[in-house]
Write a structure and sequence with these properties.
Chain lengths: ~210, ~210, ~210, ~210
DNA sequence: TATGAATGAGGTTTCATTCAT
DNA sequence: AATGAATGAAACCTCATTCAT
């Protein structure tokens, strides 16, 4: 998570690199998103920041929103293997879930622009839900669901609740926490926050009764 | 929750009713929001739907976004007393919390436009967080926090977690569930969903070990 | 035919007049068309000439081409009753045809912009053939056809040729003549030219053999 | 008229063949012109259809319009000798004219793209009238005029009409007929149509009175 | 209270075209 | 002979917004 800007990457891992103009454009948008929201960023601004002409944006991207989705996609493609890697060698479904929650928090903590895009910007665009990056997000979701299902299977997680609801509680908690901090530009402590959220989500908010 | 459109209401509960033009404008926006997102609704469209001229919108509202915030505010002002009412006479903090969660789910379930505005649209506007409706939302939040604090005080809720984190888990779960259903226009069953969420949030997702 | 610019007219003869901005825009286009072809006229130019903003063009017209079609439509609506009037009280189909040919030549002679639009500009636009003004042009065509049919009926015009072909020869001759003169900005003498064309079209180009 | 696409030809009949890239570009434009009008064909489209880069277009052609004119020129250079050939050995000016009319109709009938370019597209470009292909078209025109002059000389054609007017009637009729059919993608029967047009143009539309 | 007319400002996008390689 | 990258210039168009009435 030490490379917050995963640009200048190859097309398909082994493919050819993106042309410099394209790279500068995505970098420009990323940089602008740290300062203002997508809606108030103009293509003129992006082009100027990138040091290219506005026309070049439309050479590489269908439109302004496509640019945003491409940036988001690159982030997601960058983080997916990392998160999968993070899970390697971990025993126990709850431990995996804890790690996953930490990974998520960590990504949002380290990469505010990514968090902003995902938690604040794209959600209001109806075409986001049929976009490429949304598909990737769903793949993330699938990983979470698999871990939960595994936990139910092996008895670590209660079996009286629809695993998708469990996932929504887990992800809802993480996103709610990050959303608030992202909006007000407050830092996120992944270690601390991850531990606390796990405590709540794993054990519940009820005070343990006698003998427990 | 039988009046999903709380329009034609008075300015400040006892104040004078809104002029018909204003009412038609807010109604028009509400109606349009069922079909498309705020960003792709134009003032021309709002005016046409309302059967007024675009200029009239600016008679009553500072700008387009102000119109959205006013609509949201009217919703919030309409729902706040109801939710407070719902809590009356309930004993026990967890019972109050359960009721509150149900109330929230119920409002989102019944009033999709309200849910859309609050969960999808306004969040990406940075001036939302200094707007009037945001203040009202914070008041809602305060109620939740009070109940949690009360629960911690009286021993119903665990005291080892920051109550604000507990609130975020609770609200995060609700909003995550509603968000998904609102986006894909799927119905929400407040009774069922409220019960399930309480189960998860109150007791945690861990399978209780023997003797526990 | 003394009013080459038939603007500032009412919407539907008795309807309300066009707003001044709209009038200035159509006048501006008309004026620009005397100097250059439609393809090289920009909306910025039209707006400047009209003394309005570019945006106003799009208030009144769907796009630049729609503006052209509207101008053409206004011309056609202006000339249609005149041409019909010209035919009043004329006896004999050939006489009517002669008058009609003269009317056409006269309009093209007097109103070069109209001629330019109709003979040079719109024809290359495929959507012209589904446009409103094209419908009006077809109505003109219908009048010609009716006269020819009448002439065939009453024995003035030969009955061994499809009347539509006759119309095409008649109109083709007129348009060819006007086209050339319009392109090279040469004047058209409707009287002289009408007479000559009638001679050719009515009697044919063959030198009459003795006794014929 | 069996080779509707006269491409892959040499520069000046005996010159060197065009390089493959150039050929593919003109072929691409020709092919695109069957589907849409020149104005809505983009260089990007042409390049893609040709399987070359846009830049290559500018290697071989001054600009997009020059490409169109070159295509038109190649057509004209291809058809000129054929039409001249067609006239060989024909006796009588009216017979020559008939043949010429048939030849024209036949070319337009067989080669719709050529017809489209000549009758619909180039006419609206003011620089067309100073272009190379326009010179070739004028040479065609010259042939027609020569035949008419010859006919007047030898008494076959009436001598009381300016031969250029006669030419305009003849060519106007042909072009009018072809124009309509080209626009609406209707077939042209050169034999039938040639005969009919000759009947009209040669003898006139007036029903011959008794004794005439 | 409401409107008709018009605008400012900029937005996105297109497209022919060039240049270094 | 051909290309990949990038551009200039403008085109078209949108839209929130204002103002005189």
């Amino acid at each position: 998570m030490e490379t917050p800007t995963p640009k200048r990457r190859s097309k398909k891992e082994t493919g050819r690199a993106f042309p410099p103009g394209r790279i500068r454009i995505t970098e420009a948008l990323t940089s602008l998103l740290t300062k203002k929201d997508f809606g108030s960023i103009t293509t003129a601004e992006i082009a100027e920041t990138a040091g290219v002409t506005e026309a070049l944006i439309y050479k590489y991207f269908k439109d302004k929103r496509d640019l945003l989705y491409q940036v988001l996609r690159e982030y997601l493609e960058h983080y997916e293997p990392r998160i999968k890697m993070d899970l390697r060698g971990i025993k126990g479904s709850l431990n995996k879930l804890r790690k996953l929650m930490w990974s998520h928090l960590n990504v949002y903590a380290k990469d505010r622009v990514f968090a902003k895009i995902l938690l604040l910007q794209v959600r209001s665009f109806s075409d986001y839900y049929i976009s490429e990056p949304y598909l990737l997000v769903q793949r993330f979701s699938g990983i979470v669901l698999d871990i939960i299902a595994e936990g139910i299977e092996n008895g670590e997680i209660r079996n009286d609740i629809d695993p998708r609801i469990i996932r929504q509680v887990v992800m809802g908690a993480i996103e709610q926490v990050c959303l608030t901090n992202v909006v007000f530009n407050r830092p996120i402590q992944p270690e601390e926050m991850g531990e606390t959220l796990c405590q709540v989500v794993f054990k519940g908010i009820t005070k343990n009764a006698e003998g427990r």
